[in-house]
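[User]
Um, tokens okay?
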Amino acid sequence: MTIIRQGSLFDLQELYHLEPTQRFEAVFSTIDIEPIFAVVTKKSRFGRPVELNYAAMIYSLIARITERIPFIKDLVKRLKHDMIFRLDCGFLVSDSIPSEAAYSRMITILCESDVLENVQ
């Protein structure tokens, strides 16, 4: 059985030398969030709030990993205080910042489904 290695789209060192906005655009462009978005979006009017920007929440979780933000609490704090980071993640100025509970519910939904394994 032969081993096939997939080449990387960009070098990690080059990625860290980019500005944060360019870095996020490079990372976000390689990820297809449509399957993740389909699992997370709200299908009924009961339960969690509808007005949350779920696509931006998914992007902010990815940005959390690239920015080495250890906890969801720190991510929410950074989203509240850093307008550029908020816009880079895809939140609009008029969007409310999701709470830690909203992120926790979304992560629970993602863990219960197998969509992350399919998207890789």
In short: Helices lie at 12-17, 20-29, 34-40, 54-66, 72-81, 83-89, 100-112, 115-119. Residues 17-41+49-115 form one domain. The chain has one domain: 17-41+49-115. The longest helix spans residues 54-66.
